[in-house]
UniProtKB/TrEMBL annotation:
Signal peptide: none annotated. Residues 24-278 form the EAL domain. It comes from the Bacteria. The lineage of its organism: Bacteria, Pseudomonadati, Pseudomonadota, Alphaproteobacteria, Hyphomicrobiales. This is Diguanylate cyclase (GGDEF)-like protein/PAS domain S-box-containing protein. The chain holds residues 472 to 757 of 757 of the full protein.
Amino acid sequence: RAKELGRDGIAIFTPEMTATVRRKLSRTDELRQALLRDEFVLHYQPQVDVQTGSIVAAEALVRWNHPGEGLVYPGDFIALAEETGHIVPIGEWVLQRACKQAKAWQDHGLPPIRICVNVSARQFQEKRLIETVANALSESGLDPTWLELEITESLIMKDLASSIARMHELEQLGVKLAVDDFGTGYSSLSALKRFPLSRLKIDRSFIADIPHDADDMAITAAIISLAQKLDLEVIAEGVETKEQARFLVDSGCNEIQGYLYSRPVEEERFHCMLENNGRIHPLLPL
Ligand code: C2E
Ligand code: MG
Ligand code: MG
Ligand code: MG
């Protein structure tokens, strides 16, 4: 025990802390084994073009199929994985799996869509990210233009200079970059111009209270027009109601993601949605 604790960098702890620390250690151990045991799965959530009602992209979202607990959501393990470094191999698995899946859908003759993959802070800082992305692309045979990496705004701003350098390296691979949870961080607007970005993803927290919160509506509309002026694509996440979709469309946002269209679903279910793509318009008329 003491040795394990030492390795975890924890030297002093009170008896009350022991239970917490022990739980965390066993969780960490489970996390490490989860990859070897192939317990992670990806669910896919559609991103939809509001004008046509067609799915234009899928965000890959990881879940942990825990042997005793059932499906565990990222909110319950990503932070620990980030802290312990397990996020790096997990993130590699996610990239490989997502690229293979996107290519498999294309090979089935389904209309090609973007595949969007979340990249964590730790993963983004790792030198081998570039190699990991390149490998995921070459092993799957997926054309890089179909892969979009989602990076949070707060991550980018943490070390602006090195973030920009890393983003340029990724751009060289031909992949697209999106800023996730946009509006929650502290981007200097002038810095935005220097990023090789394709898209801003407006954070869910600004969408949730539309049409009741005038401030959120003003901020959302401002982000959309900022994106347009900087020649960036813009998407809103967490869209749950037709009123929200209506407001977004009227403000010039052309893509949305959220429960209104679909929750994240398993691969087979997403395949079916793609087979009917463009023929079912659950959004229309708004
Ligand atoms: P995110 O990247 O901002 O992903 C969107 C989250 O919002 C997802 O939660 C999704 O299920 C949820 N969501 C989508 N539409 C709606 C809606 O209309 N209403 C509400 N209330 N929620 C909606 P999820 O899957 O639990 O993921 C949470 C976060 O965990 C993600 O936020 C992302 O930051 C992280 N995450 C997920 N998968 C990965 C991954 O493979 N790697 C890394 N590093 N992080 C991941
Ligand atoms: Mg995301
Ligand atoms: Mg987000
Ligand atoms: Mg979010």
